[in-house]
Amino acid sequence: MAVKEIKKDIYYVGALHWDRELFDEIVPLPDGTTYNSYLVKGSEKTALIDTVDPDKEQVLFNNLKQLNVDRIDYVVSQHAEQDHSGTIPKVLSMFPEAKVVTNQKCKGFLMDLLPVPEDKFIVIDDGETLNLGDKTLEFVFTPWVHWPETMCTYVKEDKILFSCDFFGSHFTGSNPFVTDEEKIIEEAKRYYAEIMMPFQVFIRKNLDKIAKFDIKMIAPSHGPIYEKPETIIKVYRDWVSDNVTNEVVIPYMSMHGSTEKMVNYLVDALIDRNIVVKPFNVINADVGALAMALVDAATVVFGTPTVLTGPHPAIVNIAYFANAVRPKTKFVSVIGSYGWGGKTVDILKGLLPNVKAEFIDPVLVKGDPDEECYKKLDELANKILSKHKELNII
Ligand code: FEO
Q1: Nearest atom of ligand 1 to the alpha carbon of 165
Q2: Quick one: pLDDT at residue 1?
């Protein structure tokens, strides 16, 4: 994206990465991503807020050149992960007068990850301000959105919150601002599910913390800028709340078709009971879409055959991921076919210590599902229905 002035003397100088396919080599990026960097020109000093992934450093330098920037006094590092910090060493070499402004923890991470000498840092505290002349930066520590050192920066005069990963989305567009709110909320949910969901408790506290600021604009370090910040704050509050929806997510796979027959039967049985069902064949599933489904769903049912005495490794992989993202799921169960025995249910339960859900009796069948098996699947659907009714979500 070319340089854009987002507010008087505040510029978007970041980079689009249209064709990036994976983040952290796990998460699919159907719409690419952006590394947002912002230049804040005060009447006396100039600050750069975050840099870009080193893959796109030339875009940042071209943007600064376009603005005829010949001096940067401060590089504010809100988060040490390299998609925002990786170009700091190059910025410091091109603007030797610049100091890196960050918190103590982030300083430590940056020195672990990058060649930044200690005398280049100015360490700030939570709530401290930095005067740029006619603009004032206030630093707001927001740990665990995404790492423990992550912080936001509030420009008092313009009422902009630079939020780094917080409220971000992996989305590239031609406009630095949100133009299709519904689409961006969906993208932000995907981002939340993959990156933020494990830290729900911390996010709740950080939402309370930023509530005292009069915020007219949220400028994250991924995805477009929110000119109506109340919408994204509201959906975040919902995502981190205890509220769940009348939905059952079914990650499954099948080797010879028996488990698939069970899944198909359960899907229909749940739909008949007015429950929303989201089945994912994990062999080809978009992990991001699955994570999104886990944000709100009341129930998760794993569908797996027994292989090598346990769940199929493809389901083990997904159960490990589900445990890592810590969804607020209330009920969990397992269905599947086996040949002669095994410990599928115990192994799956053992993979989910972070999922604080009630376990509903599994339905396992030897070989191909029979009438008795389908009856048990109906009972499972009834049980899920009654559990959802107890939660008043149906
Ligand atoms: Fe966008 Fe946690 O880095």
Answers
A1: 1
A2: 64
Average pLDDT, the chain: 96
pLDDT of residue 22: 85
129 and 13 within one domain: yes
Instruction: Report the domain count for the chain.
Output: 2
Please say if the pLDDT value at position 192 is more than 80: yes
How does pLDDT run across 256-310, given as a tens digit for each residue?
A: 999 999 999 999 999 999 999 999 999 989 999 999 999 999 999 999 999 999 9
Q: Which residues line ligand 1 (CB under 6 A)?
A: 79, 81, 83-84, 146, 165, 221-222
Q: Which atom of ligand 1 is nearest to the CA of 168?
A: 1
Output the CA 84–ligand 1 centroid distance in Å.
7
Indicate whether 203 and 252 sit together in one domain. no
Residue 297 pLDDT = 98
- CATH number of the domain that 8 lies in? 3.60.15.10
Instruction: Measure 273 CA to ligand 1 centroid, in angstroms.
Output: 41
- pLDDT, tens digit, for every residue of 270-279? 999 999 999 9
Largest Cα separation within the chain, whole Å, is 79
Ligand 1 centroid from CA 83, angstroms: 6
Query: In which residue are the tokens 């902009």 written?
Result: 160
Q: What is the mean pLDDT of residues 110-138?
A: 98
* Residue-number span of the structural domain to which 108 is assigned: 4-239
Taking CA atoms, 186 is separated from 29, 171, 191, 305, 394, in Å, by 13, 10, 9, 33, 23
Token digits of residue 338: 């086996």
In this structure, the answer to whether residues 160 and 23 fall within a common structural domain is yes
The stretch 198-212 carries a mean pLDDT of 96
Residues linked to residue 20 through DSSP beta bridges, in sequence order = none
Distances (CA, A) of 119 to 72, 97, 100: 16, 12, 9
| Cα 194 to ligand 1 centroid, rounded to whole Å | 11
* Domain shared by 75 and 186, yes or no: yes
